[in-house]
Amino acid sequence: MTGSSGGGHPPPRCPAEREVPLPVAVRRVTTTLSALGLRAQLVDAGPGHDPSAWWCGLRGEADAAPLACGMGKGGRDEARAGALFEAVEHYLTGSAGFAPEAVALAAPADVAAGPLRDDVCGALLAPMGGHRMACARYRAIGGPKLGRDVLSGGGLSGGGLSGSDPRAGLSGVGRSGGILGGGDMNGAGLDRAGLNGLGGGGVLVPLFLSAPWYVEAGAASLRELVGDRCDYADLMRYSCNSGSAIGVTVAEALLHALNETIERDALSLLLVRVFLGGPGFRPRLIDPETLPDKPARAYAVARELTGSPVYLLDITSDLGVPTMLAYTLPTSRHPHRRGTGTSLSPSHAAWRALTELVQTTLGERLPADTHRDPAAPAAHPELYACARFDLAQALRDAHVVPFRGDVTADGAPGDQLRTVVAVLAARGLTAYGRTVHALASGVTVVHVFVPGLERFMLVTDGNLVIPGRRGRAAALSAPENVSLPRL
Fold first, then answer.
1. Per the record, which residues fall in region Disordered (predicted)?
2. Where are the alpha helices (DSSP H) in 176-249?
3. What ranges in 292-378 are assigned the alpha helix state H?
């Protein structure tokens, strides 16, 4: 249905993407912090605004600087809780949560011969010889069915999937470089929770793809600890934490992780079509006057905070999962700002995109905020245009459309997870997942990887990357012949 302009029409219901009520979720993450020996510093980044954003930094008793931080967006309570959860996610997926005993070493060429053959990194891994690289074991999500425990949010009672104390593996090397046991990098946690595995042991995915910190100089001792002497100089540009997510159940975490992976793919395809695909592409620009009440409120706040025209684009890809981009143009004084959102509910996708734009803008007021200059692709004009992400010309040619939502994209996280996995499978894409950590509180961190989905959006951070197979197909489908960048 099309939302009305001028109010009076009830907004579409947002899907139940939280497994439990917000106060219960906050109690669980607070219990997690206590078990980890951490205290949270919370900062309201936008007092007086609704929606707004909060910042959270985590410290140990003797730590002056945060060990991890995160931001949350939305209404006041939602944003505060989101900041707590994201900070915990970043802590558990960082060096403090590294579990060397769960690492498997594999030859890059062998890894490239598996599911990664459909990924852009496969071409870099295949010719590599010499040392083996650290990998984590993933299981296919789905198969003939998704397990009942996942769909109901179960499988996390007692000691959690790992069955161990969340701080059991902390070593004496200090918390900043400590090793947090209780993780389940081999995928068994997903399997016990009811996800069908693949073969006898799943597939190996290089750790660098999900952990940018692992390839940095500061992690050299951890790489040495597991016997990883691989040269990551040419690979680290493709490293990102896309696909990592936290939740109070496995299903909730997996849903958020897959939605983020689809979101990054859609953004990457937009970049390709606008800047590498030649003329003729017209993005879909949503008429803000047709937004339902909740996204309309977020749109007004985003416009107020940025002091710029805000553009909301429907960038849903061929996968068909609603994905939105909230965007402001770059200026001589400031790079572009953006927020993205993906959900089976178009209204919720728009809300997430607009509130992320609010979060991005408010985050610039924080002392630690830094803007990355996309200088790396400067020697490659096509990639530099992608990095700068100036949509001015594309917006002039945009096709203005009314917002179209629905009132049926509702359901528990497990139900939505089933739908998203089926959507990917229909396109010949397999989603793989692993439990990074599952704590006694029920808080669970996962990572998902879908070979073939694009991560070309890394170019906007200044990384010298090129599109994968999906991106190249999108570029080559342009009305005119194009010249794709070569590295």
1. 1-20
2. 188-192, 220-225
3. 293-306, 346-363
